[in-house]
Specification:
It is a single chain. With 100 residues, the chain is α+β, with helices and mostly antiparallel strands. It has one domain: Orthogonal Bundle (Arc Repressor Mutant, subunit A), CATH 1.10.10.10. 59% of the residues lie in helices and 12% in strands. The chain is built from three helices and three strands. It has a three-stranded antiparallel β-sheet with strand order 1-3-2. A hairpin with a 2-residue loop joins strand 2 and strand 3. Helix 1 crosses helix 2 and helix 1 crosses helix 3. The longest helix has 31 residues. The radius of gyration is 17 Å and the shape is globular.
């Protein structure tokens, strides 16, 4: 019986998955934090504010993190995730406006 070493690509995939999970968690936190302050916001404005915060690596005083590149698709995916989880809701009659 011969034991084979663990494949390198498996470790790489795990690292990539972990990085994506961390990115999603940061995006979800940014979305909820922005909406907690604003109470309601148009989805487009929310996406732009989250992307801006990601590029700057900060969200107001006292909230700093490592900046990273994110795209509108990433942010919209997290918004849909938070909507499905019940953390966010759409306004009646104005589905493009989100509330926390």
């Amino acid at each position: 019986l011969r034991l084979l070493p663990q494949q390198r690509y498996l470790r790489t995939e795990r690292a990539e998955v972990s990085a994506l999970e961390r990115k999603r968690n940061v995006l979800c936190c940014l979305i909820t934090r922005i909406l907690k302050v604003e109470k309601q916001l148009h989805v487009d404005n929310l996406v732009f504010r989250v992307i801006d915060a990601c590029q700057k690596g900060r969200l107001g005083p006292g909230v700093q993190f490592l900046s990273f590149c994110c795209h509108s698709v990433d942010v919209l995916s997290c918004i849909l995730h938070l909507l499905n989880q019940g953390y966010l809701r759409r306004q009646e009659g104005r589905p493009h406006v989100l509330e926390y």
